[in-house]
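Example record for the data management plan.
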Amino acid sequence: MAECVWVWPTFGLWRTLRGGGGECSLARSRSLNLIDVTALKSRDRRSYQRSNVGASRGHSQWRVQLGVRADFYGHCAFYPALVSALQDNQVLVGPMEEDGLRAVVTGPARHAGVKVDAERVDLVVDEACGHVGALSLVSHALLETWRRRTGASLTVAAFRATGGLRGAISQTAERVYGELDPAEQDVAKGVFLRLTMPGDGTEDTRRRVPRAELEASQQGRRTAKVLDTLIAARLVVAEENSVTIAHEALIRGWPRLRAWLEDDRERLHAHRRLAEAAAEWDQQGCDEAFLYRGTRLSRWQGHPADALNDLERDFLDAGNRREVAESAGRRRRTRLALTVLVATTVVVSVLAGVAVLQSGQAREQRDVALSR
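Corresponding structural encoding:
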């Protein structure tokens, strides 16, 4: 195999493949959990899976490898191209076994010339063995142990000081959060909630977000500073112009974030729908047909402005302006209808009065004629 190219699961994969040539190459689409795909419109999802599957079929020198998380696997059944591609071309990846975990712990340390206590290796393996998704916890715990190393040794004491396999990432997140001032903590909360996709019959997952979506707000500068802090602590990862939570273990293992997510899960779902609607409205040239109206618009009245970014506020403001304009139009039409009704009533009343007067005059003339 000539080369291996890592690409994020975006529509740019097709462009990556078009530039390839020579011997057979492998393009790996990183972590296609259908996280990003579920947020797309149905027509975009179909285009997405066609472009990925069709890419390898149309270019014999390329092979596309997709990683699908188990709890999202069922979604693939809705897309014929994926069904046929997965039918005989899948590998089930389970939890890493003991030998693999030992290699994960000792290999990088040996390469760096660092000594690892045998007891610490056993401790990590015992905690991680058999647990799905434990590798991200191992990765973070080892990083924090490295930062607490004594000379050229990674000790059990250093590992336990991190909080262990289950507590390391939570301890890091809590420490970094506690070092922020109150205003920055509010921003950090908003960042983490925007970077999380609340599950709908599935686990909560990471959400990849353009950095501009986070920073385009009244708290833009403060958000940029908080993001840099989270990235430096490796709680958030930056890739080109987007950011995402470094490990989904953070979503499951940090009690504070879990509490935020559980506090108002329905509002978070509504906010994700708002973000998608605002983005589509912007992509369609701010067409009024894509604006919220009625109940969907009114539910955002009084919502804290600093919880929304500039695009979302513009979207809701445009919806409110249209509602005001339509309301004013309805009032004008009502006034016009009332004016016409009053005028008609006056005319009818006058005509009726004239008719009564004429009828009375006719009777008088008849009576006079009869009396002669």
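Summary line stored alongside the record: The domain at 98-162 is CATH 1.10.8 (Helicase, Ruva Protein; domain 3).
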